[in-house]
Amino acid sequence: MKIDMRQSLPAAPEKVWNSFFDDELETALAGKGGVTRELISEENGPDGRITRRLRFTSKMTVPGPMKKALGSDHLTYDQISVLDPKTHTVHWHVEPPVMKDKIKAEGTLKLEPTKAGCDRHIQGDVSVKVPLIGKKIEGMVAKSIADSYEGGMELLIDWLNAN
What are the angstrom distances between the C-alpha of 31 and each of 19, 28, 75, 100? Predict the structure, then answer.
């Protein structure tokens, strides 16, 4: 399942980029998107890129058949992101706690300058190769990703205006 979202923000890419490093804001944004967020690790590379491992847990309860396949009442996954400050691009992929060989989600977030500020362009692909319920899980993962971006737009814009 493809993800392709574009959101206009009233600030230059550099300012939006700084929001990625405000832990309080990032946690609040995740909450608005219907997930909890936990920073597992962060490493600064010699080239200036930053690699983060974040654990997200959806607040949405999964339906019965998915509970058995996922081993949980809630969708949980680690997101590994490589943030490149030179290009204002984040490359991400998801590592699920179960069915690692059957679930794949990856993509990019790029901040692109515009006259009014910048666009946040999110692209990705979610693939779940599980008979009968794979497409439903794909939909839940894609919805969780989209909700996490859309749910926090007002909060992010308020932060951009205040900082």
Answer: 16, 5, 15, 25
